[in-house]
Amino acid sequence: MKRVLLVLFALISLNAFSQLQVKEGSFKHIPGGIIEDKEEYTDGNDFPMALIKISTENINEQERQRLVFTGNRETQFIKKPKTGQMWVYLSAEAATFIDIKHPDYGTYKYYLPERLCDYCVYEMVLQYVTSGMPSAVTQQNNYLTIIADQPNASIYIDDQYVSDGFKSLAIGTTHTWKIECDLYHDESGTVTITKGEPVTIEKKLRPAYGFIKIDSKPESGAIVFIDNKKVGTTPYQSDKMASGTYKVRVVKDMYKASEQTFSITDGNTTNAVMEMSANFINLALETDAASDIYIDGQYKGKGKWNGRITDGAHFVEVKKDKHRTVSKNLNLVLGKDENIKIEVPTAITGFLDISSLPVKADIYLNEKHYGTTPRIISDLLIGEYTLKLEKEGCASVTKNIVIEENQTLTIKEQLPTGKEVTIKTDQSGDKIYVDGNYVGTTPLTTNLGYGKHNIKATRGTQTAVKTVEVKTTSVRDEFVLAFGKMIKITSSQNGDDIYVDGKKVGKTPMDIDFSLGKHEVEVRRGKLYETRTWQIAKNSAVSCYFIPKKEPLEKYLSRGVNFITLNAACSVAPQTSFGFTFGSVKEAGWFVSAMSNFDFVGFSSREISNELVIVNGENCKTRLSINGGVVIKGFGPVYAKIGAGYGFRTRNWEDLDGDWYFVDSYNGLELDAGLLLNFNGFSVSTDIVTNFKYMEVKVGLGINRNER
């Protein structure tokens, strides 16, 4: 029995000192190894996975199936058994370590020596190690971290690029490192990996760049080229440039190009001043103010031109429409400025001999007046013109003409003085008068001169009158005169006033010849009215009876009223004032209001300053208000008023010497708003007036009258 217990104790002890571990140096990246089915091996977060092919030592097929692989929370695993191996797929970016578990062999935490790349394939060997005595666990790897002060620096460890700047390496090994960065000097060295804290190398990179500032003389604005590449214009300040030697060239119109070589050193600014020599002459040209100046075929200006021009031969032309061009050859020499006056181009002209019947017709050429016919017009510039002849009572004549060089164009024109027209009424035999002269009976065809004429037709006691215009633009004119309807106007009392279309025509009873159409007839007796609107036709009644009566208020107000009210106002000061308001309104109108308490001491009183003032007890107040605004009709007799204006208000005290001082005052903008009631003959109003410091209530009573 004791022997069995010893065997069991030995087995338990052997298991207690056994462990899983990754064989040293076995973890490797398989060059060219890529997961082919990438869509299948993407984790639940749609991130790429990597594959580690794990071979085992001292672990049989059955025990290999019992291995479990876990990691940090973000890492997902897929386990696939293979012959002699276990393939483990895991999240590439998230994985930093693997916990390898076996129910009998225990747990082993393995820190990955490098970041896994997407869809890459790796291999390693997992060992199950047994030992009679427990061995101390020793640290096998440590991190080497390279830090540069420039964020875009590239870091290499053992000539391999390290994107994150750190790498897990075996303790006791020696490695090379290097830092590269554009426009900075490379830094490099060797380092041995030790136990304990991660090995860290920090470097401040030394600049391998400088700057260049380029100016040009005697003028700026020159185009700058550095090593034949266009970079800007002077004054030019560069960005960072790698230290070295550069060829600088500046180019500017009218100057010779300048080129020099400059060196840029680490951390310094090179000042490059480029001297340019002039390659131009200052030329001034002057001619007729309306002429165009061309140099070598290019337009330069009108009348005058000043500018720079290269030396040598140039061809100058001065041009003007319908004038002979003046040209000049110039030979310009550097260092000698020129001021040249060029003769004026001469006009190319012809003549126009023009006459008309009747004479004294106004002559217009391109709408410019040239007197009256007959006339010979000299020195006309050649070309096309629009000729127009006009005379009162005649039709105008318009035609296009062409004036040629040294030629006389003769024009003779007959101006039409009138044309045939027809005059009609609604029946034959009516007598027709034109401009007061009897010309015949209807229907009448006669010749009338162009322009306006007064035509009258008579039929017994009836008369029809019409003003007509005979126009040159129409082919044939026909004028029709219509007689009206004779209607007798009577009323309930003789002597009432009669108004037709707003115009007083007489008193009742009265016979009135109405023209056909719409008319407003009104009969008045003092304040009594009756109004009718008629459509006068041939079959209208021959008489009409009116009974004037009191006019409704709405009808009275619709004509518009002029109003004036006497006002009284009071504020809580207390202070009273009096005045008036007058205005006019129909649907909308205006008003003006003036108020005062008629005590004007406040206008001459003084402000109390720092000196002592002793008052005698006498005090007074001064008030003045002048406002204006608009009146808008509301409903019935109610109108709204709103306006603004100027207000003045003071409270004054008298001192022992009889001088007045104000202790409270305001002058400036006032607002006025209220209501106006207009009745037949009288008006009532109420307003609120305020300057936002004081407020007063104003009431008014007055009269109004109709606008007719």
Main attributes of the structure:
708 residues; mainly beta; Immunoglobulin-like; 8 domains; eight-stranded antiparallel barrel; 60% strand
How would you sum up this structure, described in words?
With 708 residues, the protein is mainly β. The chain folds into 8 domains: 2-129, no CATH class; 141-203, Carboxypeptidase-like, regulatory domain (Immunoglobulin-like); 209-275, Immunoglobulin-like; 281-341, no CATH class; 349-414, Immunoglobulins (Immunoglobulin-like, Sandwich), CATH 2.60.40; 418-480, Sandwich (Immunoglobulin-like), CATH 2.60.40.10; 485-551, Immunoglobulins (Immunoglobulin-like, Sandwich), CATH 2.60.40; 558-706, Beta Barrel (Porin), CATH 2.40.160.20. The protein is 4% helix and 60% strand. A hairpin with a 3-residue loop joins β60 and β61.
